Each structure stands twice: as C-alpha cells, then as structure tokens.
Amino acid sequence: MQEPLNQLENTYFTLQGQIDMLSAACQTQDQRNTLSTQYVQARANYWACVNKAFHDDDPQVASLTSQIAAANTALTGDVAQMGDIIKVLADITNVVTIGTQLAAKVIGA
Amino acid sequence: MQELRHCGLRRRASVASSMVALALLLLAGCKTSDDAAAAATQLTATANSLTSYYTALDSLLSETDQLYEVQGAINPITPYDARTRALVADTKKEIELREKLASALTTLAQEYAKLSGSTAAASAESDAGNLETALAGLNQTRVSMSAGNVNLMKDAVDDIVKSIQERKEREASVAIDKFTTALDNWFKEEEPYYNSIGANYASLTQALAHTLVSKGQVDASSFLNVALSPYGLTAQLSDPALKASIDNVLAAQIDQKATALATAQASASASMEKALAEMASRIHLVAKDKPMAIRTAPVTLADVENWISLVPQIAGTASPAAGSASSSSKSK
User: Fold this and answer.
1) Which residues of chain B neighbour A55 with C-beta distances below 8 Å?
2) Do A5 and B204 touch (CB under 8 A)?
3) Where are the domains of chain B?
4) Taking a C-beta distance cutoff of 8 angstroms, is the pair B206, A17 a contact?
C-alpha cells in the first residue's frame, strides 16, 4: 500500500478501535464535540484516498507522510496511556489536521 | 517530473476489447489446439473467480455502509456524515466497475474456449467485434495505475490492433502475453487497497461488537449453547460476575475473529494474484508454441473461492436491509 494511505488508515483505525474509551474520557460536551469532529474527519480522509494515488515524488506528500507517521506514533502512545484528555484531543486534532492536508494531495482531489 | 498515476477505465475497456480480439486471433492461429483449449478453460475459471472476488468485495462495502449507520445509532460521537457516505458509495462504484470488467473478461475467455478448435479467423474477428461492443459499456471511470502499467497496456493494445490488421500470429501472441502480464500487475498494484477495504470491515465490526458487549447489550446464550443444547436447555444469565467473565471471553473471541476476517480476505487477494500470474505464465507458453504441461485451473483459485463462499455468511449479503451506498448502486 502506498505509505500515505497506510498512515491515514493507521489514524482512522486507531481512533475507531478506541472511540469508546476516548468518549468515556471526555469530560465536557466541547471535548466530545471535538472528538466527534476529528473522528469523522479521520474517517473521511481515509475513504478519500482508498484506491486513489498520490504523486510519488511530490516533496509535500513526502513531508506530510513523515509528519503524520510521527503524529500517529504519538497518538498510539496517548491511547495506550490515556492521560490528560486535553492533551490527547490536541494530539488527535494534530494528526487529523495533517491527515486532511495529506488527503488533499491525492490525485483528483 | 512527477509521475502521473491516473488514467481512465476507457483505456482498460479498450485494452480488454482488444484482448478479446487478440485471444481469438491467437486461437485461430494456435498450432497446439489442445493447449489452447486448456488455456481457454483456465482463463475462464480465473476470470470467473476474479469476477466473484470483486462481487465479494462489493458485498463488504455494502455491509460497511450499513455498519456506519449502526455505529452512528450506537454512538452519537460517530455520526455517518454525508461526505463519508458519498466516499463509500464512490469506492463501491469503483469496485463494481472492476467487477464488470472481470465479467467481460470471463465472457472473453468463454469465447476463447469455444473457438479453440476453430480455424476460421474471419469468424473469430466477428465474435471479437461482438464482444468489443459488449465491453464498450465500461468506459466510465477513473483508476489509479502506474504510468509504467499504463504504457504497457497501451503498447499491448497498439500491438494487438496492428497484429490483427496484419494477421501476424507471432506478434499477436507476444502482445497477449504482454497484456496478461499487465493484467496481473494491475491487480497486484491495487491489491493493498482491496485488503484495506477488508481490514476496515474487520476493524469496524470488531469495534461495534466490543461496544455492544461492553454495554451489556449482547445475549451470550449462543455461547453457552454448546453446554446446554444437548439437554434442550436455554441459558438465563443473571449473575453479574459470571456475565462479566463470559464477556471477557466474548471480547477475546471478537478480536480473534476480526483478525481471521482480515487475514482471510488478504489471503484471498494473494491467491487471486497468484492465479492471475499463473494464468499469464501459461498463456505465455501457448503464445510461444511451447507445451503447457498443467491442464487444471490454477490451484490457488480454490483459496479464492473458499473466501468468496464465506462472504455471504460473514457479511450477511442476503440481508434485505440496504444502506445508502448499496442503494445508490442498484441502478447500475
């Protein structure tokens, strides 16, 4: 699989697998709204790139792919530890924002 | 310069149509009709399995559409938004187009088989023309494909057309050989995307099953049936500690089953690709007028068929309920 889609899949599958735990950790409606918005966006980013292609040698694609890989690593650590929900939501927002920028680079987007 | 990995199915339709014509020409000129007949039978079986493989993937996408509806109903944090709905529907359409293409290739292979003893080139070209007309309906989508494969397929088409016009059997054989190799590469290139669709189906069902178990909304009776059914008894769980213990077992089974679902689909994809590669290598032998020792369908097709046979059970394909993505495709 192309690495960009692989990373978008990682983000989405991680959130999907942990959505119950993340929902339970939210303490305010604003936090739940943030989680909902980011989950829906992560899922859309994934589907926007299934069976689509990226320009192999686009430096921006390469840069965003590196960034999202690092952000996914942070996200995996967050959900494993489930510490401060504010930090977790900030990291989720960060990885999904990068994912949205990456998905916008898919050919035909 | 950036490598553009994008082209239209129009080109594939044209390639497939030309493959029809070439296959017929190849048969008409084949010196070893037994081998050609065997190759035709194997091509039919392989193309038919490819069609069924795409049909099964299509079923998983229909189920995915419905699963998102369920997910949205269970957890308001995960609404099934219009954009995702449209993207799932779009992916489903793409798979359906591949299904149609594979189906057209099956028809081609059947014609190939029928003509394997024929020496009437004119008749073969006429049949090829009819099939080309049938394949024309495929000109409607975009696909992702490497520029290398695009060029290979394009070259094959050019060679096919030229060979037919000049009635050069040797060149035609080389061209169909090139085409079948490109067909295998095409599948190989898209295989990870197909596996991602299967992995998402497994991941989504796994998440939903866990949610329902953790919320105490799953009846564990069927799990206990193995102990009670010999006596005609039905479970009536009321002890919270016992229920919690069983829920832990159910959760482990869900994880195990989800892994098995994703693995089975990925295994079927790998087997399908191996079958396409095997088919290409056998056609290569026929094209080179070399003896084709193996006369049975590619052995890995059995693995593909096994997974396909399981999909109606794992995906509940017979369910009358239909989500928006599946509904939208009914007019195809």
Assistant:
1) 2-5
2) no
3) 8-205+272-302
4) yes
